[in-house]
What does this fold into?
Amino acid sequence: MYDGFASVNRDRNRKLLMVFSVGIAFVFFVLVVSFWNFQIGQHLRFLEMAENNHLRTLRLRAPRGVVFDRDGRVLVENRYSLNISLVRERIEDLDEALAILGRVTSVPFQSLHDEVARNSTVPDYRALTVIPDASLAQVAAVTLRRLELPGVVVEQVPTRYYPSDSLASHLFGYVGEATDEQLDATTDPRVRSGAIVGQSGVEQRYNEFLMGDDGERHVMVNSIGREVEMIDEVPPGAGRQIQLTLDYDLQRAAESAFQAGGYTGSVVVLDPRSGDVLSLLSVPGYDPNDFALGIDSDTWKSLNSDTRLPLQNRALQGRYPPGSTFKIVVAAAALEEGLITSDFKVSCRGGATFFNRFFRCHSVHGTVGLEEAIEKSCNTYFYTIGNMLDVDVINQWSQSLGLGVMSGIDLPHEAQGLVPSRDWKRKRFGEPWYPGETISLAIGQGALAVTPVSLAVMMATVANGGTRITPRLLKAVRDDNGWREIDSSQTFETVEMLPTTIETLRRALWMVVNHEGTGGLARIEGRDVIGKSGTAQVVSLTGRASAQDGAIDFRDHGWFVFAAPKDDPQIAGVVFAEHADHGYLAAPIARHIMATFFAKQNREPLPVLPGPLPGASFVDADGQ
Amino acid sequence: MIDSRLRPHIDWVLLSAVVVLALIGLVMIYSATYDPTTETIGPQLSRQLLALAIGLAAGFVCLLVDYRVMTDNVGLIYVGLLALLVYTLFFGLEVSGSRRWINLGMFNLQPSEFGKIVIALVLAVVYSGERTRDRRIQDWATGAAVVAIPFLVITRQPDLGTAVTLLPVCGAIMIFAGFRLKFLAVLAVVGVLLSPVAWTYGLEDYQRTRIASFLDPDQDPRGAGYQQIQARVTVGSGGLTGKGYLQGTQSQYNFLPVAHNDFIFSVLAEEQGFLGVLFVMGLYLFVILRSLDAARVAKDQVGMFLVVGITAGFAFQVIYNVTMSAGLAPVKGLTLPLLSYGGSSVIATLMGFGLILNVRMRRFIN
It folds into this structure.
């Protein structure tokens, strides 16, 4: 049945078919052009996007170098911690993922959320740690729910570990991610965004050695972020090991003695021959482990708001008037300038009048010579020789012996002390120096401020007979060829002093400890300890009277500088006890340190503190 | 089986092109369901093979039986389709909120896939026959009603994508049946005017999100725009010669969703590159033009309409899917006929080509 398929229709249909065919062919052509555009024209762009999709560069964090003490004992090492991190790029609903994560790990949602918000600048494709140092239970819970939690990864990261918690915390310092300023300032290719670098202390000073070279692993991941194939790996290079001059046992002794005394303050112990820092302490400390995985904001806040300043390294950043310990410098200056001899005598009747003003002594000493004046810390004697000395001479001798200048210790952020001079007075106040000011300067009061480490250098210089050593912490570095000892003696300076001056000072300082002086609590039989106490006024007597509320502790700070044995000193140092009221209360701490030193030298059992030290004060230890 | 006089008139060239496309589909499905970590493939390949066998058999039946026998019984076929669709709507297998499949044990049948062929048959009958007068509005209304019923049922499943494939079948046949282009223009204007209403009342939330994300995929790159962006990345990263078989990172590592189904062409573009795209597009164009040629030589109007309708539906689906594969069209659950995984789609498509071959083969038979 041919159904009138008329030729008119036939023509129209053929035309339409032609139009259809051409139309479809044209659409195909357009599509092919589109594919050409994507596949040829924009190929590189899309190829990069595809690679970003499935290629991941994972940073393999390099362990930092291990730090040993002078006996080879491990002070700082690394441990592996498990961090739970987010790759936000792979997470569709961040809040939902955080809610699940919080539930399975028992971490409050809000704290996870805050952690993400705090690190919002971390690129989406990089793992952002939300639960550092996760427990095994948390890791197991997350691993079990891997399918519900795409983009949540568990990373094993070498983490700085300080086995003895807050021991020498200021000395070791702490580590943290490189700051923007550090990234801008560095020329070290290892210091990249996200790299862990030393932020203070030895960690910062010797970062160049300690820092390892982070490696990289290139992996293929699937759409839920699971690693499906490793392409290649650049293994991380561990940081170099270093050995410090620090003596762990001495450091422990210093800390336990400080604890027993209940003070805040500082200790610096040096080997006066080499400048080796045997112990360096600042109390209160902090736990550098808290920083190892990024410090949480609460801990950081409480460290920063603590009025006892736990983050300050008092040994090099605290500046205090040296009190009577400064008399050593004044005596040395007077002897060396030829103004007096050790026979020079002064009569003390409880003080003396200079420039129409009465300067008090704490006692009536009668007629005293230099050695006795030092032994008994007679102010009248030193007022008298202070009156004979020019302020600039005192200043010059202070600097020669290490006060008012940087010690050059190999730790960052050392503060410079202050010893006044005419020049300083004019610049600072636009006023001339008044001779009366030299009187109180001679007993270590006035516009005088020293750091504990600089006072330790002064004591070491006097003890060793005039070599101003540079305190140093780095003993050796391990490189490819083994341990390389560091020699820093070229930075030592010789202070020209007459043998008689040295002899006189040593004898006087010996009497302080071993005769009738204020340092009797530091005495060790047969060790010929020399030393000098000092009291640093916190406020003037009038200021103390006006402050009635007692909110601030106005008790004076106590100093004790020491060295032993007298004729061949092997140990020298300083104890600074805040609010100890008097320097002689710092002496037992020094004694314990020296006793430990000599016991160790003789391979005897290390001494143990019997109990609280004389005059122990626990007020500050409670943070009140 | 086939009359010996007819055998020489089978369009072996078209048949070969269709079979080649189906084989390429198998190869790409293997790749898309391959898991490089376990080095295994999904169950889809064997199911597709089975569907292909069934489809070839069904297509053979469609070739064997004179198409006029079918057009004579078109009412029965139409009612049968509607029955299946309605059955599906109420008793179908529910998968993520929609009922599109009837569970047949070995695989699931998707009746809506067969809608295109049935509609082509019905409309071919409606608009063929002696024309004694110019077409009137009633003629168009009849055709529209024929399409509207299954269309509405399918959209209720809901499966807007498959429902939409009925429209080009209908449109093409109506144009050949004398539908004036000026009507088309009027319809277009009405459509534009109605689109806000359709946007508000006619679309589901997910559909609105899809269209919005298509217009600006970067707006929500992890959400609805994700597929679009990944489709472009997949295609674009393939380059001229592709990343190699089973080497497509986008598809192998699941960055491209439903790669074996809606986005099979993206997998091809990634692994075989622009050259692969060119080859397959060429085959598709050849199949379409060759089919239209069957319409040209068709002996009668009903045959011509039938071929035009089926080819139009096929061409529309190919064009839409390929456009979508390049991230240039909103994502719809529309398969690429012959290449995509999907049993019903393969069977329906092969049946369609059976009919096209049927019309061509019988062009000299009175």
User: Anything to note?
Assistant: Chain B has a mean pLDDT of 87. Chain B has 15 helices and five strands. Residues 7-361 of chain B form one domain.
